[in-house]
Amino acid sequence: MRPLLHLTISTPASVLADVEDVVALRAEDASGSFGILPGHADLLTVLTASVLSWRRAAGDQGFCAVRGGIFRVADGRAVSVATREGVRGADLATLQHEVLAELAVKADADRRARVEHLRLQTRAVRQLLRYLRPDAGRPREIFGDGDEG
Fold it and tell me: In which band, very low, low, confident or very high, does the pLDDT at 130 lie, cut at 50, 70 and 90?
């Protein structure tokens, strides 16, 4: 019997897939699309918003759209994906066109919210510094005006 992969895809709230008879898997990270076969070397990478696809020993395929995540291969057999959000489906076209676009929009909104949060945090720190050191923004006089009598 040839070796198989055990695939687990999970979110904080649920397990989207727990498949023990996977013969091939495709995923995508920042460097592009890649494939995993049984016996693959240990791997840890960050997935982009993409669709994972796999083929089972019986020949049927599975698909899951993820909003990014952590992808790990351990011991050449165990493949795990931890993602904030994902949707499993049987039809690749539906996942790619509808769900993946929605997940990408959510990921972009999250990024914008993080940037705005950092901007507000920086502004608050600057205001605190101005309050604690009010003279920090003004040039200091080295010499007096001569009226030091």
Answer: confident
